[in-house]
Amino acid sequence: MAVLKQIAKATFVYDDLCIPMLPRLRITCDNPTEQMKSIKSARMYEDDIILCAYPKSGNHWLSQVLHMLTHGSIQYASPLLASRLIELISKKGIDALSPPRILHTHLPLRMLPTQVVEKKIKCIQILRNPKDVCVSYFNHATKIAPPDTLEVDFPEFTDVFLTEKFPYGSYYDYLLTWKADVSKYPDLPFLTMFYEDMKVDPVKCVKDLRTFLGLNIKDTFCEAVVEACSFDKLKMKESLGIKDGVLVDVWKENSGGTFHRKGEVGDWKNWFTVADSERFDEKWNEKMNGSGIEFSYSIA
Ligand code: A3P
């Protein structure tokens, strides 16, 4: 499969996981394996928050929500989530950030700093139905700037998406590994959220976050955060970030690439044929049946 060769060129394997050579990593680091290893000894502060989620599950959205909640004001974080992405900044970058810190990662728990478990750092995970993740990822991967752009059509992409050769591994391995790892540490404060719930009742979800984080903030502030983090507002913020050069060179020229593409539940129906969808379900269910993780694929 030609796309597997392209993925292999843009990734490296570390601890059995396929990790993308993110552009900045490629520039600043000759030895990505050492950089990954260094993460384990990074310093954590008790009030750190880590958003651990698979790509395209709503990381940027939740990042802004968390930034506002923890700062207690309607101020946007830098749209460059990569500047807080653990695998990109590694130990050096993590240690250089001063608290209060919201860190991000797409890695499994075993690769995170050992102090995450030792200091019981609050971890939040947002999950999204795999078909919408797949569509969102396809648009991301085919529009990202070279040399990472994938030249692939959607049906072929759906096939590699569910393999271990995919960046960060297949989504089901990602979910099952996190579930198993978290169950080993019942004292680790861990909140699971769903993208689809955020779409249906964002205020309730933000209030749940408030409770989990132990924040003393009013309902009206939670509502204001939801409003400030609406899809349209964040999309506008992203376009300002591109204009200001913060997000420069992320997307292929004239590709229309964006972190705020459609923001819907069920867009997958516009992409999957019935046959593709059935094939996807079959593979998904084979791994995920009995996992206790259930998704909504559409909302009324
Ligand atoms: P789509 O590509 O389906 O539109 P991530 O931040 O993890 O890369 O996830 C990106 C996905 O989250 C994109 O999905 C994007 O549109 C969606 N998203 C971002 N902000 C959102 C918001 N405020 N409301 C709903 N969806 C949002």
For CATH, the homologous superfamily is named as: P-loop containing nucleotide triphosphate hydrolases
Arrangement of strands in the largest sheet:
4-3-5-6
Note the gap between the termini.
38 Å
Note the total helix count.
14
Taking all Cα atoms into account, the compactness measure Rg is 18 Å
| Approximate shape | globular
Task: Please report the first level of CATH classification, the CATH class.
Answer: Alpha Beta
Strand content: 5-15%
**Main beta sheet, described?**
4 strands, parallel
Question: Percent of residues in helical segments?
Answer: 40-55%
- Count of individual domains: 1
SS class: alpha/beta
Number of strands: 6
- CATH architecture, by name, is 3-Layer(aba) Sandwich
> What order do the helices and strands follow?
HEEHHEHHEHEHHHEHHHHH
Which spans have pLDDT < 50 for at least 5 consecutive residues?
none
Question: Could you say what the CATH topology is called?
Answer: Rossmann fold
User: Ions, cofactors, ligands: which are bound?
Assistant: adenosine-3'-5'-diphosphate
Give the integer mean of the pLDDT values. Answer: 93
